[in-house]
Amino acid sequence: MFLRTTLTSVVISLCMAAGAWSQNPAQLGNTAFEEGRYTEAVTHYQNALSEEPTFAVYVNLGHACMRLEQWTDAIASYRAAIELDAASATSDVWLFLGQAHYQIRQYGEALDAFLEAAASGANQQTSIWIARCLIDLEQWLRAKSALMAHLGT
Questions:
Q1: CA angle 144-146-149, nearest 5°?
Q2: Torsion of CA 76, 78, 84, 90, to 10 degrees
Q3: Cβ neighbours of residue 85 under 8 Å, at least 6 residues apart?
Q4: Distance (Å, rounded) from C-alpha 61 to C-alpha 42?
Q5: In angstroms, rounded to a whole number, what is the distance separating the alpha carbons of residues 49 and 73?
Q6: Tens-place pLDDT, residues 68-84
Q7: Is the Cβ–Cβ distance between 100 and 66 less than 8 Å?
Q8: How many CB atoms lie within 10 A of CB 96?
Q9: Is residue 30 very low, low, confident or very high in pLDDT (cuts 50, 70, 90)?
């Protein structure tokens, strides 16, 4: 009886482990991200990228790095996504890239990303980021123009 119980426990454990293994690393990363386990999500996304680099996984890796305030890693991830499939780069991806650059005071690079976001049809938030970069770059008149455009005047 003991042997049967032990074997049953082993089989159940193996089935549970096989179920976890059947998920691909990107799915595991998404689950970890949704549960707030960002460091674990980064590891899963990196594993997924080593198997098959995809635009979505690079973007998700960037998001996880942003949550961990790993700005340069986030920048590298968003850049890799854009280089892999520029046509899939939405205004949101450019916006996140700009925000990562802004966090490490790379205002020129942030401005370039925000301008790409604006060209891709970004929301009104983008014009505020553009103005912030221009202020930090001491380009007062351009900042004023960006703010005036934002306000519709």
A1: 105
A2: -160
A3: 55
A4: 6
A5: 14
A6: 999 999 999 999 999 99
A7: yes
A8: 22
A9: very high
